[in-house]
Amino acid sequence: MNTRTGLLALILAMSISTALAGEADVENVKILPNGSNSWTFQVTVRHADEGWDHYADRWEILAPDGKILSTRVLAHPHVNEQPFTRSLSGTTIPDNITSITIRAHDKVHGYGGKTITLPWPPADK
């Protein structure tokens, strides 16, 4: 194999590997009241994290108009922990909000995986 063919094969292999990890999906959301109109969100995310260059790096709570209400930054890859759940406490949601959407983000694909939309406020408030 000549150098050019080898380089093309390497680039193709890297592209396929990155594509296989896919987008970050939100699998579950649990909402717990803290009192004083504050909430804790426990969000379960699934993503085929590959290491520091390709991992789910945050999840967000969105208003119906797409405005980001809160963000939970994920500081490291979860290669051997899938799916994983992380919490965000002290979140307040404005009174005029009727639904929220939780989405995840990964360092390569950005947004686009499975989201979860819930009515707001929660039925058991």
From TrEMBL:
It comes from the Bacteria. Keywords: Signal. Residues 1-21 form the signal peptide. This is Thiol:disulfide interchange protein DsbD N-terminal domain-containing protein.
